[in-house]
Amino acid sequence: MTAITDHPINTRWPAADPTVLQLYSFPTPNGVKVSIALEEMGLPYEAHTVTLSDADVKSDAFLALNPNNKIPAIIDPNGPDGEPLELWESGAVLIYLAEKTGKLIGTTPAQKYEIIKWVMFQMGGVGPMFGQLGFFSKFAGSEIEDPRPKQRYVNEAKRLLAVLEKQLADRDWVAGDYSIADIAIAPWLAALDFYGVKETVGWDELTNVPAYLDRFLAREAVKVGRVTPPREG
Description:
Helices cover 49% and strands 8% of the residues.
């Protein structure tokens, strides 16, 4: 890969300091995973606002970095072996950053894979299911009269929340110590409020999950990461 300043994305989102990690994102549940991780790990970075509009995510500049036209994506000028690294998919970015810094991924191989297991739980379950629930509750899917699509995701969201409720019965954080697993999962729990579905999924019937989300949202790095980059860049 060429230097950041030579990358096509720099024509639209120019790097002020190409020596630090470049984040291209928007404050969605997936987007804030990376900004929160960067804040927690203390890595210097520069955040660029890439909106969800086709004009941004389907632009030639952004597609040159992520052909899947989704945020977040990064360019790390100091990647493996000192070479620049382009990376997308929020779960992959979280694992990369944790391994790069040696933070929030445990201290033993067993702890590492326990954490990665719960990151995959979010990537394969919580994110897709909660996102579809949001679509059928708040966005265009809410206009569909057939109740079955929405109910499918209501049921699955309740099931996933029950898994977390049980997991958090005897611990503050999902995989033991605070980790990238929490950074992956908790922003999606917060999204249930944005989607207006907390009552629908029985949020008030839970005990451990709401307390867990409160602990997460109280962290200073989380407060900063949730609004980084700003919605208007």
